[in-house]
């Protein structure tokens, strides 16, 4: 049986918790921040929890 390849892009973009949930950052927090409100920037800096959808892509990590 062939060994499955790990998707490196998933590992770079997501942080895996102890319960195998995936955390990612919001988009839109790098530039053009002057016109965004403080509450919007604060909300964008928090992480989003994703369900275990990418589990098969990182099978060996």
TrEMBL record:
The keyword Chloroplast applies. It is found in: Plastid, Chloroplast. It comes from the Eukaryota. Its main location: plastid. Keywords: Chloroplast, Plastid, Ribonucleoprotein, Ribosomal protein. GO terms for biological process: translation. Belongs to the bacterial ribosomal protein bL35 family. This is Large ribosomal subunit protein bL35c. It comes from Astrosyne radiata.
């Amino acid at each position: 049986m062939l060994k499955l390849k790990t998707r490196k892009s998933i590992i770079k973009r997501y942080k895996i918790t102890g319960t195998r949930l995936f955390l990612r950052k919001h988009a839109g927090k790098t530039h053009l921040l002057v016109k965004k409100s403080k509450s919007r920037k604060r909300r964008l800096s928090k992480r989003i929890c994703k369900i275990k959808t990418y589990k098969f892509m990182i099978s060996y990590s």
